[in-house]
Amino acid sequence: MALMAFCAVFLMAGVSEAASQYQDVMSKWERKGAYTEQGELGRLEVKVVYYSGEYIEALLNEEARKNMWTADELERYKYNLLKTLNLDETIPFMVEFNNNGPSMHMAPFNEQIALWVGKKKLTPVDYDKRFNFKLQGKREGMVHFPKYDEKTGKSNLQGAATIRLTMAGGIHGYLKGEISYLWDVTKDNPQRLYEGKAASRLELDRLIARIRKLSDQKKELEGKVAEIDRELATIQQRVDELQRQ
Questions:
Q1: Is residue 199 domain-shared with residue 185, that is, in the same domain?
Q2: For 187-242, what is each residue's pLDDT tens digit?
């Protein structure tokens, strides 16, 4: 009986420690702000999450612990999560507003939010379009910034020490200027997530998508070549006719 009680206490301590570690990681990558104005009853609360490698890993481990998943179940969840985040091509953030003050009007939202990597300003390549609608109450959604530079092909995060997310002050009457949130990304390594079965499935998805894209490009080029061949044949026919005169 005493042994069972000791095991139960030991197990509870382990669960409590795991939950505490999870919360520590969550708070490391979450940023929160609360804004109000004198004489107003409600306030605006903003929460932003940067999906770092450490944050995603902690999220995966916590879901596996809570649901008592097998290794295969964890890999399936990991695959779906990484595919949703599109971590290979974008820098994802979760943005949440809880607005109990005057209504917010943020359209177009992609012009109200930006990610700064050093002096380089990045604008969203995708975002939750619900942010374009009048907002009263709570709303959360994903915002994705480009991971790679269009001209050089290099990662926008390469060599970065910090990143800064900003939102224009015009999104709410309580704000006197833009709001800004900062993250230290020197030790962030999302690539370590790309291991195991989930990574293989994601690579397969990418390769299949690449094959389709190249096949479409091939068809387009073949169509252009066929068009040129027809034009050449027409020209040659006319040349032959003129030479016979």
A1: no
A2: 888 777 777 766 677 667 777 777 888 888 899 999 999 999 999 999 999 898 88
Q: Do the bridges between strand 179-184 and strand 120-122 make them parallel or antiparallel, or are there none, so unpaired?
A: unpaired
Same domain flag for 155 and 133: yes
Same domain? For 26 and 87 the reply is yes
202 plus 181 within the same structural domain: no
Residue 170 pLDDT: 95
Among the listed residues 185, 184, 181, the one whose alpha carbon sits nearest the alpha carbon of residue 47: 181
List, in order, residues 6 or more apart from 39 with CB less than 8 Å away.
Answer: none
Q: What is the mean pLDDT of the chain?
A: 88
CA-to-CA distance for 153 and 156, rounded, in angstroms? 9
Q: Please, are residues 240 and 234 in contact by the beta-carbon 8 Å criterion?
A: no
Beta bridge partners of 164: 116, 182
